[in-house]
Amino acid sequence: MHFFAEKFGGMDFFPYLCTNYNRMRMKKILLILSLMFTLTVAMPLAVAAAEYYSPAIEQAIDEDINVSVTGQTVNVSGAQGQTLEVVSLTGRKVLTVKIESPAQKVELNIPKGCYILKIGKVVRKVSIR
Prior knowledge:
The protein is elongated and about 75 Å long. The N and C termini lie far apart (70 Å). A four-stranded antiparallel β-sheet has the order 4-3-6-7, with no helix packed on it. It folds into two domains: 3-53, no CATH class; 66-128, Immunoglobulins (Immunoglobulin-like, Sandwich). It is of the alpha+beta class. Helices cover 33% and strands 32% of the residues. It has helices at 3-7, 14-17, 20-53; strands at 66-70, 73-77, 83-88, 93-98, 103-107, 113-119, 122-128. It has three helices and seven strands; from the N terminus they run αααβββββββ.
């Protein structure tokens, strides 16, 4: 006797599940359930992650600090009195600059590559070209 048939009370129940109509019905139910799960759980998480990690959106996380990079120039606004740290991807501190004005431009003069900029709680990964 088949395992499924033994578990659910004999062979009279098993043929009911094996008809093509019931297979299609079960597939339809599973498809609807997976779609509901995707729309209610996975999609909001994906949208939230895309909004949080989107590099096109300028991050203003801590006290409206804005950081933008153009070439070798970093434009910092809203960080007066704080310190800009430039760290390589290996963790070595490359440069430290005190931000003295509400809007300040900082020339980096460092080799091309990827770096991490830290100002207070604001952390940005940037590419210097």
